[in-house]
Amino acid sequence: MAVRRARKYLLDNDQLRVGDASLPLLQDEVARLVRDYPRRPLGEIWEDLLNTHDEVLHLIDTRRFTPSQLRDTNVMAAVLSFLVAKAFNDLEDRDQARTMSLVAAAFAKDAEHPGLIAMVNGLQSLIEYWADRPTDAFFYAKKGADSATYLRGTVAPWLLGLQARAAARMGDEENALQAIAQAVELRERVVPDDLDELGGLLTYSHAKQLYYTVEAEALLGHGNEALTRQAEEAVLKFSDEEAPDWAFGDLAGARCNLSLVRLHNGDVEGATEAIRPVLDLSTPFRNNGIVVSTLRVRDVLLHSPARTAVAARSLQEEIAAFPPQRPALLPGRSG
Known about the structure:
Layout: H1 2-13, H2 22-36, H3 42-62, H4 67-90, H5 94-110, H6 114-130, H7 134-147, H8 155-169, H9 173-187, H10 194-198, H11 206-219, H12 225-237, H13 248-264, H14 268-279, H15 288-302, H16 310-320
Helix pairs in contact: 2-3, 2-4, 3-4, 4-5, 4-6, 5-6, 6-7, 6-8, 7-8, 8-9, 8-11, 9-11, 11-12, 11-13, 12-13, 13-14, 13-15, 14-16, 15-16
């Protein structure tokens, strides 16, 4: 509360013209939220995220800026709108997520920031992917990738990874594998940009690229030994909570993918071992993406030759009981 009051005092003191205190203060808070989002339950940062979003929009509405200040503020507004849209998606409130993604796109365009514009296309693809609308997800990912061909940051391979997953969900193996290959080639030319420096959801690490690759192949029904090793490596890469690119959602997704790959090999016990830590997650960590990923494992189990085995039936029942009434529950909401 003391820090919040102090920040309000500094922002109010700047009066009509943005002063030296406001922007650095808000930029630090935006950077913190970008870093914290993938590492903490949404309920722990939701209030700070909305308050900071409101503060930045209030500045844009009420203050005068130099051209460079206005661009920096529009960048912050775009990033915060991106995070709020992602939060609504994690809450399975897709209409709100889509609306906020359009807000993020508008601020990114006002900032004239090509990387952010492409990244918002990626966010729109992500929203549709988890809504199980792979055709729309592919459209947005391709739109972003086409505009990002000359960008050097990791947003370009991320958009190709999104294309690969969407294509795989559609059963389009040719486009999925082509996107995976293009992303590998593009990774070799990556030069981190200002979005990568912020980290968190705004960068696409080697570990995350491996996770996306495995997911696309798993969705295609692949389960050979080489893919199993890749899936195990993805889990291992996300197992160090001290790593800068660690994210609880990516670790859970990587575990679900490993479970899928093992199921494609007929290894029910190995699949259960892989997904066990995900099923043990407390309710605040069960966001929409994690819930959908676990249900995909159940869908494969239901069509597996081993579905009548005791271990398979037990796992099906556990996954069926996993989703809360609302994913990524916020304080004050019951599960």
